[in-house]
Design brief:
Shape: globular
Structural class: mainly alpha
């Protein structure tokens, strides 16, 4: 049954109202902690890293003693627990240097607005249709209404920068600029665990220009970072990563929560191989089909342990919406 124009507009208005209501309620409760204290989120660790790098040299960026010292200066009396570390690659600290001109609370809200702007830009590039009209705007409202998006924004993590990099990569590639697309995709190194396999998958999936440009740009950033850190800085970084690998909270979000060592590492290698094989099988497919499959699988992996009730007894696997979402990758496999 086809809807009349009037009924379709009413449906759009009703859905928009529902999404705005969801954004308001979920956004309020999600952002409530930072309304009370913006220094309680991860942006403060970026400030710590920048201060250490600028004042003591980038080779000391991952010095745990200096990070503890500057954290105490920025948050007097706050505990320096096992999660209180700057662990991002150096390019994120370099990118956020202008924020140090602002007090941390203002810097946090500035970074939040910046991340929201990146999400809007990503939506504008990849959402179906053109312009700002209905139903296109509903995709944007749905993105901001989704709790994982609001949580990442509150947490101060640069996830939306990676989302923008992937979206811009697709948009540039579709515009006939594959080399620039690969270079922009390299921005994702600021949080590599989110989209690290996108570049290699494009490379083996038949988009070798994009993949080669990504290798060149990401490799250049890696080499510059290593040169700036020096042997001692690289050693400190690897030491912090080794400690972080054994933190229970971090393991809970990886395959290490399912498999004991060394089987967790074997499982991770297996996932990488299977992902690359899937990309190879999709070689020559439209870029949206390849990236869409990878994106859905990433969403499912990141939401694996989200609890759906306060008792923590039901996971996403008990929810029919997620069972349906899990079938979507098969749609991308169809010719």
């Amino acid at each position: 049954m086809r809807l009349t124009v009037r009924n379709r507009n009413l449906a759009y208005a009703g859905l928009a109202y529902f999404l705005l209501l969801t954004i308001g309620i979920t956004g309020y409760w999600t952002l409530l902690p930072v309304f009370k204290n913006p220094l309680d989120e991860d942006t403060v660790f970026v400030y710590v890293g920048i201060r250490v790098g600028l004042e003591h040299g980038w080779n000391h960026l991952y010095s745990i003693d200096l990070q503890r010292q500057y954290y105490a200066m920025l948050r007097p009396g706050a505990p320096f627990d096992e999660l209180a570390r700057y662990l991002h690659p150096p390019p994120l600290a370099w990118l956020y240097i202008p924020l140090t001109l602002l007090p941390i609370p203002i810097g946090f809200w500035t970074a939040l607005v910046f991340q929201c702007g990146l999400l809007v830009a990503a939506w504008y590039m990849v959402a179906p249709g053109k312009g700002w009209g209905m139903p296109r705007i509903l995709y944007l409202l749905a993105a901001f209404a989704w709790y994982p998006v609001l949580y990442e924004l509150r947490d101060g993590q640069p996830v939306m920068l990676v989302v923008f990099a992937v979206a811009a990569c697709w948009w540039l590639a579709e515009s006939g600029r594959p080399w620039l697309a690969g270079a922009v995709l390299a921005i994702g190194v600021v949080k590599p665990q989110v989209a690290l396999l996108v570049g290699p998958c494009l490379l083996v999936g038949g988009y070798w220009r994009i993949g080669a440009a990504w290798v060149a740009a990401a490799g250049t950033l890696a080499l510059v970072s290593i040169a700036m850190l020096g042997p001692s800085g690289v050693k400190d970084y690897l030491s912090l990563l080794e400690v972080a690998r054994h933190i229970v909270y971090n393991r809970y979000m990886t395959l290490a929560d399912i498999f004991p060592d060394p089987f967790a590492a074997i499982a991770q290698v297996g996932v990488v191989i299977l992902t690359l094989v899937a990309a190879f099988r999709l070689r020559g497919a439209p870029l949206a089909r390849l990236e869409g499959k990878l994106a859905i699988e990433e969403v499912l992996e990141r939401m694996k342990n989200i609890r759906l009730d306060t008792a923590g007894k039901r996971t996403r696997l008990d929810n029919p919406m997620f069972r349906g979402l899990k079938t979507l990758p098969m749609l991308f496999d169809r010719p």
